Amino acid sequence: ETETEDEESWEDWEEAGSQAVCLFCDFSSCMPHKLTAHMQELHDFDLKDVKLRLNLNFYQQIKLINFMRRQIYLGSCYGCGEKFTDKRVLVEHMHSQQHVDRFPEPSVWDQPQYFFPTYENDNLLCQLDDDEEDEVAGGRNQVIAEDLPSLNTILAQESVRKDILSGDIT
């Protein structure tokens, strides 16, 4: 086998238990690109587009997905609030009314309760990209200090620091 054939067979390999389920139907795949293509083609939903359009960070993506899953589980269209007893009818409504990527104000879904998945072991959450854009500021890694140094201490005096470092403390 050539290296290309090895890579292709590696890509086709599926690990049991790592299936991620579509937000709108029962389709699942352990390969993120297949699930993404499914949601784009069948449901007109592009998570990357939503992320960019709404300027979502990694944690907001998690909360939005958990919100969407919860609303669909409850049979509620998150685009308009209309309730349905049949998931298939709900998804058809969301398609026909173009509510698939119509979301309420962030104050509705950007809540701590949506850090917790609707479904245990929701592998779609594991497939999310924690893009470098979330971590990089101005071309450098962004560092946030836990404690800022206090400049109003005796250590601000250079002579004291020199004495401490030289061991000349009396």
Description of the molecule:
- The termini are far apart.
- This protein is 43% helix and 5% strand.
- It contains 8 helices and 4 strands, in the order H-E-E-H-H-H-H-H-H-E-E-H.
- Strand 1 (20-21) and strand 2 form a beta hairpin.
- The longest helix is centred in the middle third of the chain and has 16 residues, at 58-73.
- Residues 132-141 have low confidence and may be disordered.
- The protein has helices at residues 3-12, 32-43, 47-54, 58-73, 87-96, 106-109, 123-126, 158-166, and strands at 20-21, 28-29, 136-137, 140-141.
- It is mainly alpha-helical.
- The strands form 2 sheets. Strands 1-2 form a two-stranded antiparallel sheet. It has a two-stranded antiparallel sheet with strand order 3-4.
Total beta-strand segments? 4
Which structural class should the secondary elements be placed in? mainly alpha
Rg to the nearest angstrom?
A: 24 Å
N- and C-termini, Cα separation: 75 Å
**Shape descriptor:** elongated
Reported for the largest beta sheet, the result is: 2 strands, antiparallel
Domain C2H2-type: 75-104
GO molecular function: zinc ion binding
Keywords: Metal-binding, Zinc, Zinc-finger
Family: Belongs to the ZNF277 family.
Write a brief caption for the model.
Helices cover 43% and strands 5% of the residues. It is built from eight helices and four strands.
